[in-house]
Amino acid sequence: MCLIGASLLELAVTGCAPPWQLGLPHRSASQPRVAAAMAGAGSRARSLQSDTFMRSVALRDGALGWRQLCPDLQRVVTENAMRNQAESQKAAEVGRVARLAIDFVGSRSLRSGTSIRFYVLTADLTDGSASSRVFIVRSRPAGCVEDVQVEDER
């Protein structure tokens, strides 16, 4: 597995905060604005665990992200580790991120039933610059997240 052991949410973006307009908690002035576009998910009304995982990255919600992981991965990456990483990420971003957006780019189903979904996390920083990361999330046929890979903007 290519998933990052105990620091899974470190995948998020240092200096990038997260998105997802639906269900966002009240945001204080120090929290970044968050937007998410998961369009392209097809006509399925049910939420995909990979989409929920990406929402957790954007919201810096380690517990929510951990619940999307496959059971064998949950034995390797503890919920507490993900919560701690998310809180550290949140603290590091205070005052640095003005707006975050997550966009669903596309997906691919493999013969094995595994699904791969591609997302771009973009952050507009308070200094006027921007940063982005590409996330590749692999899910098992049951829907749980089994792997996450991240590629920084070059």
Number of helices: 4
End-to-end separation in angstroms reads 25 Å
Helix/strand order, N-terminal first: EHHHHEEEE
Q: Which second-level CATH architecture applies?
A: Roll
Q: If you average the pLDDT, what whole number results?
A: 77
Main sheet, how many strands, which sense, barrel? 5 strands, mixed
Name of the CATH first level: Alpha Beta
Tell me the domain tally: 1
Q: What share of the residues lie within helices? A: 10-25%
Number of strands: 5
Strand content: 25-35%
CATH topology description: Nuclear Transport Factor 2, Chain: A
Task: Produce the secondary structure layout.
Blueprint (H helix, E strand, L loop, with lengths): L32 E5 L11 H11 L2 H7 L2 H4 L4 H15 L3 E13 L5 E11 L4 E10 L5 E8 L2
Parallel strand pairs: 1-2
Antiparallel strand pairs: 2-3, 3-4, 4-5
Description:
The structure is a single chain. By secondary structure, this protein is of the alpha+beta class. It has one domain: Nuclear Transport Factor 2, Chain: A. Helices cover about 25% and strands about 30% of the residues. It contains four helices and five strands. Strands 1-2-3-4-5 form a five-stranded mixed beta sheet, with helices on one face. A hairpin with a 5-residue loop joins strand 4 and strand 5. Helix 1 (about 50-60) runs antiparallel to helix 2 (about 60-70). The two termini are about 25 Å apart. About 35% of the residues are buried.
